[in-house]
Amino acid sequence: MCAKYSPFNWDDIRIFLAVARHGQILSASKALGLNHATVARRLSALETALGSKLLIRRTNGSDLSEEGQRFLLHAEKMESEMLVARQNVGAESAVEGTVRIGAPDGFGVAFLAPRLIELADRHKGLQLELVPVPRAFSLSRREADVAVTLERPREGRLIAGKLTDYHLRLYAARHYLERRGTPETIEQLAEHSLVGYVEDLLYTASLDYTGEFLKVWNSTVSVSSAMGQTAAVRSGAGIGILHTFMANGSPELVPVLSQRYLKRSYWTVVHEDLRAIGRIALVIDFINEIVARERAVFLA
């Protein structure tokens, strides 16, 4: 005789969460290491047990139904409780497991990546994943466990903490200025080649800042990432607005109109259900620690 099915079978809820986050049964099955048919069957069993249609299955993916959206909130709470329970009973008491950090590419690559080895050396059982890309991360969909963001979130069950302010200034390559001359006024910027961002790829309003220097910023070269803009300016492509903590370490980059600068902020953000998990709290504390230790580079 088969055992009676429980609607709170954790394995099936874990499968549901994977499908909800990937948007496809096939992608979720690959991530879980399960057969596509097994995933589909377990989802159907979960829907039957709950008496609700959780997914609208389409040829190109799966969308959550209204019932699925409501159940997702409960499933995420169950997931968080399971993580906390594992920690409290000792399965992760030695600070073990994986923490994925989402961050803007400039902060993630230029600052955080070379410093993560310090945290890894402190805790040998900790696996760190850094995703330094110029986009927003959905913490509710577990695209990252911890995110460094450019704005404080206004919605969702998220906990945000101010990490630091940082400055952006105008820079150019030394050989560019030798060839083209150095502008002495903001208005003279219009006579130069300019490096900017790809406007329709901006993922947050705080990145739309060229107008704060020059009303009409006509970019000769546009790059969709902070690292790419820094590389373009360093090559001599033109004058660009760069993060001081990235540019000041390059002797070939020279500040232009150095009295002018912009101030922006970084925030650490975590889903409220995950803040109590030891390894995640540890990573947030570490990021705050290393930024506090080197805060001067952000405000140069």
Topology of this protein?
Elements: H1 10-22, H2 25-32, H3 36-50, E1 55-58, E2 61-64, H4 66-88, E3 97-103, H5 105-112, H6 116-122, E4 126-132, E5 146-149, E6 158-173, H7 174-180, E7 194-196, E8 221-222, H8 226-235, E9 239-243, H9 244-247, E10 253-256, E11 262-271, H10 278-293, H11 295-298
Parallel strand pairs: 3-4, 3-5, 7-8, 7-9
Antiparallel strand pairs: 1-2, 5-11, 6-9, 6-10, 6-11
What does this structure look like?
The protein has 300 residues and is an alpha/beta fold. The protein has three domains: 10-88, Winged helix-like DNA-binding domain superfamily/Winged helix DNA-binding domain (Arc Repressor Mutant, subunit A, Orthogonal Bundle); 97-164 and 265-295, 3-Layer(aba) Sandwich (D-Maltodextrin-Binding Protein, domain 2), CATH 3.40.190.10; 166-264, Periplasmic binding protein-like II (D-Maltodextrin-Binding Protein, domain 2). It has helices spanning 10-22, 25-32, 36-50, 66-88, 105-112, 116-122, 174-180, 226-235, 244-247, 278-293, 295-298; strands at 55-58, 61-64, 97-103, 126-132, 146-149, 158-173, 194-196, 221-222, 239-243, 253-256, 262-271. Strands 3, 4, 5, 6, 7, 8, 9, 10 and 11 form a nine-stranded mixed β-sheet that branches. A two-stranded antiparallel sheet has the order 1-2. It starts with 9 loop residues before the first helix and ends with a helix. Residues 1-6 have low confidence and may be disordered.
